[in-house]
Design goal:
It holds the Pfam family Bac_luciferase. This protein has about 350 residues and is α/β, with parallel strands linked by helices. It has 13 helices and 9 strands. The protein has one domain: TIM Barrel.
Length: about 350
């Protein structure tokens, strides 16, 4: 088993804070195309590698006009081919949408091509709407077998037993590191039971964060992959030279989530004046949006850094997964670079 499979790898920094990683959605902005979005994602990953980030993950969503990473493993291959040291993975593969064998083959292929750099984050939500679930040939009962499907997937990554009738090729014997992703106690308890690292989706579903982390740590059973608990939390970060500029960038994400609340999803929109959003809220929408995006850290480096430090101190997480839905590519890259400088990240040797 590789060292990567035994313990989640962390970036080599100067000890200024937790490992930092990035969850990207290959966002399709107004006026762009899916191809441009995926190429921009690869360019971002290349820069993140140079700035010292630990991982670059892509999400799986379907039937969403603003997200180009629906074919997650295909997109990850493109990202991995363009980078050399940063870990590349799924945040996550929605396992109820797939057979475990197919995912083992896909990620076994990635691990074979880019050994020691592939992560497989797994979620049990469909990542889409009920009608699209039916188009995926799935139904609401698919998520009920998630624990069994995770274990089946694990088994395909083990060395094949003599006479084993069904084998994942590529995949068998590669032991690609698995993560459980979640936003409730269910995922936390499953990750603890299986002895897998756990990532909580606090960047959009924060309510159960502390209860889930506690349940995971208290119930953790050591496994061949992980000898001790390892936790990651998602946060949204928007950094600019001034608080006002960062708040302006944040309005693109606010508009996107407002569209989700209204079931009117579209392409990622340019930022607007923050005050203009006050004219569009329907009753209860602002409160719901503020709750969903509670762990969004927006402002200048001087504003953002102490707030992130406090979040890490309060949660005790080992790693932060950063999401930044920023419309302008230059501003998006600048935000991530500023964050790397704030935490004194350093690229790994040879990166």
């Amino acid at each position: 088993m590789s060292e990567a499979a035994g313990k989640p790898e962390v970036a080599t920094g100067a000890g200024a804070g937790p490992a930092l990683s990035v969850l990207d959605h290959a966002s399709i902005v107004e006026g762009s195309t899916p191809g441009e979005a995926i190429r921009d994602a690869r360019e971002l990953a290349q820069n993140l590698e140079r700035w010292g980030y630990n991982r670059f993950w892509l999400s799986e969503h379907h039937n969403m006009r603003a997200i180009a990473s629906a074919a997650t493993s295909v997109s990850l291959g493109f990202i991995a081919e363009g980078t050399s040291t940063i870990r590349v993975g799924s945040g996550g593969v929605m396992l109820p949408n797939h057979s475990p064998l197919v995912i083992a083959e896909q990620f076994g292929t990635l691990e074979s091509l880019y050994p020691g750099r592939i992560d497989l984050g797994l979620g049990r939500a469909p990542g889409t709407d009920p009608r699209t679930m039916r188009a995926l040939r799935r139904d609401n009962s698919s998520s009920s077998t998630f624990p069994q499907d995770v274990q089946e997937l694990q088994a395909f990554f083990e060395p094949a037993a003599p006479g084993q009738p069904v084998r994942a090729v590529p995949g068998e014997g590669l032991r690609v590191p698995l993560w459980i992703l979640g936003s409730s106690l269910f995922g936390a308890q499953l990750a603890a039971h299986l002895g897998l690292p756990y990532a909580f989706a606090s960047h959009f579903a924060p309510n159960a964060l502390y209860d889930a982390l506690a349940a995971y740590r208290e119930g953790f059973t050591p496994s061949e992959q992980a000898a001790q608990p390892y936790t990651m939390a998602g946060i949204n970060v928007f950094v600019a030279e001034t608080d006002a500029e960062a708040q302006n960038l944040f309005t693109s994400m606010q508009q996107a989530f407002l569209g989700t609340l209204r079931n009117a999803r579209g392409l990622l929109q340019p930022p607007v004046e923050r005050s203009s959003l006050d004219t569009v809220w329907r009753p209860g929408e602002k409160e719901q949006l503020d709750m969903m995006l509670r762990y969004s850290f927006v402002g200048s480096p001087e504003t953002v850094k102490p707030k992130i430090d406090q979040f890490v101190a309060d949660t005790g997480v080992d790693e932060l997964m950063i999401s930044s839905m920023i419309y302008d590519k230059k501003a998006r890259f600048a935000s991530y670079e500023a964050l790397a400088e704030m935490f004194d990240l350093q690229a790994p040797a040879g990166g």
